[in-house]
């Protein structure tokens, strides 16, 4: 049995990834098994998932829920319980990253269910298992790429994790169970004899759902302007605590990616360490369906940090 805990190539102790909604909640609920990126996964083991501050619109949520309904239906799974809420600026839970493959390898890997292979829409596909969610999502800010959770947040969050009832729990077979990094780009490509034989026949409704999911993701690549943010310089490769200003290209997504979602997003906290971007969710109240989880006010978070029950 695989044990938790980060196994990493970089300097990560409690690695976390900020993602846009609804992709973040879909991953934590075990509906989404593949996290797509333009860069390979730098860790193996537990990865915390944080939802960025952008409030998803109804059309985006519908497109992604339709996508997962269609791909699960390929394997005869029709009972999918989607999240009731898609909270933003919250730490949601975690998954276990057990491998990383290129899109070409994933879609040709016939050992996997067709629904999983259909999730492969990006340059690199992070293979995720064992999702767990927080009973009380924690309000916090996120950063770009993979970063470490603050110790006090980690200590409070790890006590609030509960298992998730996924629609179709999955274990990815490792080429070498003793080597957590054995499932990596190029590791299984040589085993494919006839790539065309592994192609999945798509119905018109499935093709439409895939197109809709890709279209939903393009909203994050439309604005390619460069914005400036000031963030604390507490990344794993730095010992300085002085703030620094960095330039971030908004919502960068390589062509053909289903979703990037690796941008640093602003916190809903009143005391932000960096500039609030235009169009933030603070400008208006989210629709009723997208409202914040009622279990995440600051009193509960503060009590959790003290190891006490909220009053």
UniProtKB/TrEMBL annotation:
It holds the Pfam family ASCH. Residues 218-297 are annotated as: Disordered. Residues 17-121 form the ASCH domain. CDD domains: ASCH_ASC-1_like. Residues 226-236 have a biased composition (Low complexity). Transmembrane segments: none annotated. InterPro entries: ASCH_domain, PUA-like_sf, TRIP4-like. This is ASCH domain-containing protein.
């Amino acid at each position: 049995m695989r044990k938790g805990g980060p196994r990493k190539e970089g300097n990560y102790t409690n690695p976390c990834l900020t993602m846009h909604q609804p992709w973040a909640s879909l991953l934590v609920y075990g509906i989404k098994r593949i996290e797509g990126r333009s860069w390979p996964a730098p860790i193996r083991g537990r990865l915390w998932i944080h939802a960025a501050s952008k409030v998803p619109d109804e059309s985006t949520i519908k497109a992604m829920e339709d996508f997962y309904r269609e791909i699960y239906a390929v394997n005869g799974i029709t009972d999918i319980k989607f999240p009731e809420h898609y909270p933003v600026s919250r730490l949601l839970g975690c998954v276990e990253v057990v491998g990383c493959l290129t899109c070409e390898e994933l879609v040709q890997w016939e050992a996997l269910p067709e629904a999983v292979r259909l999730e492969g829409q990006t340059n690199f596909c992070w293979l995720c298992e064992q999702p767990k969610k927080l009973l009380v999502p924690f309000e916090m800010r996120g950063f770009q790429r993979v970063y470490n959770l603050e110790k006090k947040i980690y200590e409070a969050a790890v006590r609030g994790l509960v298992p998730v009832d996924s629609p179709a729990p999955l274990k990815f077979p490792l080429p070498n169970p003793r080597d957590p990094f054995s499932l990596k780009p190029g590791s299984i490509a040589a085993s494919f004899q006839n790539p065309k034989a592994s192609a999945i026949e798509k119905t018109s409704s499935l093709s439409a759902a895939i197109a809709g999911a890709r279209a939903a993701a393009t909203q994050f690549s439309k604005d390619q302007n460069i914005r400036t943010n000031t963030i604390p310089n507490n990344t794993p490769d730095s010992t300085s605590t002085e703030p620094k200003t960095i330039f971030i290209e908004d919502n960068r997504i390589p062509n053909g990616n289903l979703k990037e979602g690796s941008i640093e997003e602003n916190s809903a906290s009143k005391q932000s360490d960096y500039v609030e971007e235009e169009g933030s969710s603070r400008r208006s109240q989210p629709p009723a369906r997208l409202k914040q989880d009622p279990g995440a006010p600051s009193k509960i978070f503060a009590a959790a940090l003290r190891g006490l029950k909220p009053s």
